[in-house]
């Protein structure tokens, strides 16, 4: 759940759960299939955005200032999966119109996307935030960043395992933020990584 003044003061939420995200044979329509925008003074939904795909469906919300104009934007991440990480299908990243929930820009990479553990911040020192997300593409895990209008900016991968992006922070006090992520290898201990904002260098890494 997120709170922000985007197209008016709104409470925004994604969803997720162990049930079907679409109308199915069991007659259910789980709220994991939607992004919600609530007007807090009425408690009513000002708009509801539906995503259409099969299987279990999860969605998350991030509120970065991608364009650097001082106004937050709504980025929704979505993924469709079955019971396990490797049994996945559709994944998407959506820049939403704050007044309607419709797509301004949408990326549909078609692989698993970790919708709840992304982060955002100024990763390159240029006006505007970047969003960092983790994807699972075949057997290869990636960290990927996206900037204004969801233009892809950087990526980092390892041969196997899974990434969990945790946060971005200016650890060096330079005004440019770094990416903190957990790398979960196929075997062995989880490792905490600190990468530069361009994802070109691992600055520190250790078991934890």
Order of helices and strands: EEEEEEEEEEEEEEEEE
Helix content, binned percent = under 10%
Biggest sheet overview = 5 strands, antiparallel
Give the helix/strand class. mainly beta
pLDDT under 50 segments (min length 5)?
A: 17-32
The fraction of residues assigned to DSSP E strands is over 45%
First CA to last CA: what distance?
Answer: 29 Å
Q: What does the overall shape look like?
A: globular
Count of distinct strands: 17
Provide mean pLDDT, rounded: 80
Radius of gyration computed on alpha carbons: 17 Å
| Quaternary organisation | single chain
**How many DSSP helices?**
0
Q: Can you put this structure into words, describing what you see?
A:
By secondary structure, this protein is an all-beta fold. Helix content is 0%, strand content 50%. It is built from no helices and 17 strands. The strands form four sheets. Strands 9, 10, 11, 12 and 13 form a five-stranded antiparallel β-sheet that branches. It starts with a strand and ends with a strand. About 8% of the residues have low confidence.
Give a short summary of the structure.
The chain has strands spanning 2-5, 9-13, 34-39, 44-50, 56-62, 74-81, 88-96, 103-107, 112-113, 119-121, 130-137, 140-146, 152-157, 162-169, 178-184, 191-195, 202-207.
What topology emerges from the helices and strands here?
Blueprint: E1 2-5, E2 9-13, E3 34-39, E4 44-50, E5 56-62, E6 74-81, E7 88-96, E8 103-107, E9 112-113, E10 119-121, E11 130-137, E12 140-146, E13 152-157, E14 162-169, E15 178-184, E16 191-195, E17 202-207
Antiparallel strand pairs: 1-2, 2-3, 3-4, 5-6, 6-7, 7-8, 9-11, 10-11, 11-12, 12-13, 14-15, 15-16, 16-17
């Amino acid at each position: 759940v997120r709170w922000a003044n985007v197209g008016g003061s709104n409470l925004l939420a994604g969803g997720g759960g162990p049930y079907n995200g679409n109308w199915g044979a069991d007659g259910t329509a789980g709220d994991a299939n939607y992004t919600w925008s609530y007007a807090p003074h009425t408690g009513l939904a000002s708009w509801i955005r539906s995503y259409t795909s099969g299987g279990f469906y999860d969605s998350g919300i991030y509120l970065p200032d991608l364009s650097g104009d001082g106004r937050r934007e709504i980025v929704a991440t979505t993924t469709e999966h079955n019971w396990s990480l490797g049994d996945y299908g559709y994944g998407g990243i959506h820049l939403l119109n704050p007044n309607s929930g419709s797509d301004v820009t949408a990326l549909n990479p078609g692989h698993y996307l970790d919708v709840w553990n992304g982060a955002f911040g100024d990763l390159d020192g240029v006006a505007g935030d970047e969003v960092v997300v983790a994807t699972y593409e075949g057997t290869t895990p990636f960290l990927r960043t996206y900037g204004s209008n969801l233009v892809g900016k950087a990526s980092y991968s390892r041969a196997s395992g899974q990434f969990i992006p945790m946060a971005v922070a200016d650890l060096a006090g330079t005004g440019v933020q770094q990416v903190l992520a957990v790398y979960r290898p196929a075997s062995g201990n989880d490792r905490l990584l600190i990468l530069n904002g361009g994802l070109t260098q691992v600055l520190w890494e250790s078991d934890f």
